[in-house]
TrEMBL record:
<dbReference type="GO" id="GO:0005886">
    <property type="term" value="C:plasma membrane"/>
</dbReference>
<protein>
    <submittedName>
        <fullName>Acetyltransferase</fullName>
    </submittedName>
</protein>
<keyword id="KW-0997">Cell inner membrane</keyword>
<keyword id="KW-0012">Acyltransferase</keyword>
<keyword id="KW-0808">Transferase</keyword>
<dbReference type="Pfam" id="PF03279">
    <property type="entry name" value="Lip_A_acyltrans"/>
</dbReference>
<dbReference type="InterPro" id="IPR004960">
    <property type="entry name" value="LipA_acyltrans"/>
</dbReference>
<dbReference type="GO" id="GO:0009247">
    <property type="term" value="P:glycolipid biosynthetic process"/>
</dbReference>
<keyword id="KW-1003">Cell membrane</keyword>
<keyword id="KW-1133">Transmembrane helix</keyword>
<feature type="transmembrane region" description="Helical">
    <location>
        <begin position="6"/>
        <end position="31"/>
    </location>
</feature>
<dbReference type="GO" id="GO:0016746">
    <property type="term" value="F:acyltransferase activity"/>
</dbReference>
<keyword id="KW-0812">Transmembrane</keyword>
<keyword id="KW-0472">Membrane</keyword>
Length: 285
């Protein structure tokens, strides 16, 4: 039924990835040059985040970001039909032994991730880990695309949990004695009603959501940051960085501080990999 309902995307995903990149190059022309999608936000974010860079350097990051942004769209569609052999060629983990060691210590894990690299390919993690992989998500208003994204993310075993049910579901899994590896993206801008924590990030005071910090403290989960680099088009390499093994014993909000520093360092490695089109600084301190 799903294959019929989402047949245009299934058919597209069957094409070789190099063909999909041709479509990505065409889409880049429309998004960047014709429609100029959020270029004002992207340029403002880049200029303020890299005051030391010359304008031509900022422009180069901007162009590379839009190319990468278009690639992610087609790489995500390709997820629908990629087999394990192709996944292992394109999604590489440098130190899986860190996660194995925590598993043998009977530790639940929070992967405190970001919109960097191809975050959608974190759905491949069940192929590499013994933990039950879960992911919090905000349901999309468009029901068709909401179902499509859930299908893409859950195809290989990720348990997708609506954010409002997140903590309750984790407690249920804990009661069932299932070790969990919880994917939480922490670089969104908090809403005006959300609890937030302020810290210095990319030359500005920046508000961070507190969900990952609260959950890791309550459950005393080990907290990992996935440091990602893009080796070449369609090939990503991740190094797991242990931010805190026992957050309950650490200073309050130290997890967010460590996360923000790890994310900033990762962004500085390859700036075009971050989602600059997001209005990250719409809140002011």
């Amino acid at each position: 039924m799903n294959k019929l309902k989402f047949s245009p995307f299934y058919l597209l995903s069957l094409l070789p990835i190099n063909v999909l990149y041709i479509f990505s190059d065409i889409l880049y022309v429309f998004i960047f040059k014709v429609f100029q999608y959020r270029r004002d936000i992207v340029m403002d974010n880049l200029i303020k985040s890299f005051p030391e860079k010359k304008y031509r350097e900022i422009r180069e990051i901007e162009k590379r970001f839009y190319h990468h942004f278009c690639d992610i769209m087609f790489e995500s569609i390709k997820t629908l039909t990629m087999n394990k052999r192709e996944i292992e060629k394109r999604f590489k983990i440098k130190n899986p032994e860190l996660i194995q060691e925590l598993y043998h210590q009977n530790k639940n894990i929070v992967l405190y991730s970001a919109h960097l690299g191809n975050w959608e390919w974190c759905t491949f993690l069940p192929l590499f880990l013994d933990h039950q992989v879960t992911a919090f998500y905000q349901p999309l208003s468009n029901k068709y695309f909401d179902e499509l994204m859930k299908l893409i993310r859950s195809r290989l075993g990720v348990l997708c949990i609506p954010s409002q049910n997140g903590y309750k579901t984790l407690l249920k899994l804990k009661a069932e004695k299932k070790l969990t590896f919880n994917l939480i993206i922490g670089d969104q801008s908090p809403s005006h009603k959300s609890s937030r924590y302020w810290t210095h990030f990319l030359h500005r005071e920046t508000a961070f959501l507190m969900g990952a910090d609260v959950i890791s403290n309550k459950n005393n989960c080990a907290v990992i940051y996935p440091q990602c680099i893009k080796v070449k088009r369609g090939v990503y390499e991740t190094q797991f960085i242990l931010l805190d093994e026992s957050p309950r014993e650490s200073q309050k909000h130290s997890v967010i501080e460590k996360y923000s520093k790890a994310l900033e360092e990762n962004i500085n490695q390859q700036p075009y990999l971050w989602l600059w089109s997001h209005n990250r600084w719409k809140l002011s301190a």
